[in-house]
Automatic annotation (TrEMBL):
GO molecular function, one term: transferase activity
Cell division keyword on record: no
Designated name of the protein: Phosphotransferase enzyme family protein
Keyword Transport among record annotations: no
Record key words, sorted: Transferase
Domain Aminoglycoside phosphotransferase: 19-224
InterPro entries from the UniProt entry: Aminoglycoside_PTrfase, CcrZ_PhaseVar_Mediator, Kinase-like_dom_sf
Domain of life: Bacteria
Amino acid sequence: MDHFYQLGWQLDPLGGPSGEAYKAEQDGRKLFLKRNASPFLAALSAEGIVPKLVWTKRIETGEVVTAQHWKNGRELTREDMGGLRVAALMSKIHTSEPLLTMLKRLGMKPMLPEVLLNKIQSSLSPKVNAHHVVRNAIQYLENAVPEIEVADCRVCHGDVNHHNWLLSDTDELFLVDWEGAMIADPAIDLGMILYPYVDHSEWDSWLQNYGIELDNDLRSRMKWYTFVQAITMIQWYEDRKRFTEMNEWILFLSKVMDKDRLI
């Protein structure tokens, strides 16, 4: 990012797994810079899902840098996730034809359940695969693969935890960090909001705000995808030897199993 230093910008790396995001300041102006962001960012900006895209530039290294308006604000709390605004924004994302069209233009194919199951089965380490909670979950996944039509797949974020939601100081709500975007069954996002954040007694009202009714089919699909995502996170943390977080996800997976038996 020497190009921007030479132009007089002050850059502060923002961390994160990619290490490619920066807060940029010059003469009181603040921008959020990202290296090698997907062209999908433009569609997200146009839909108001992320802070507005200001410009896209190719720099001397050949890398593409995007700049968005810098938004002061806070991430959502766990309690915020059960609110009407989260449900409304998720519905907007899942029903957006422009977003779906853009991902298709970028060559993305639907992430069907069979593909997700194969990815998990081929990626688990012996240690994770041997854990009794994971084994029970894998057996369930193998025996209960949802039947999803390609036409029912929509744009999904894939990592809707509360850290990826930004409420600005001017009361604008955004969902950020779209590196894991996919075309898939919307239940993959819904399950990871309802199971961790929303009491089961409020699932019906949350989904009504989203725009659908809770039925047995949706319930089983959300459970299936929540198992997939929990196992994925268990393996992700095990790979990085972050065993505290790994155990937290194992505990979450176990609680989802127990909760579902009571529903």
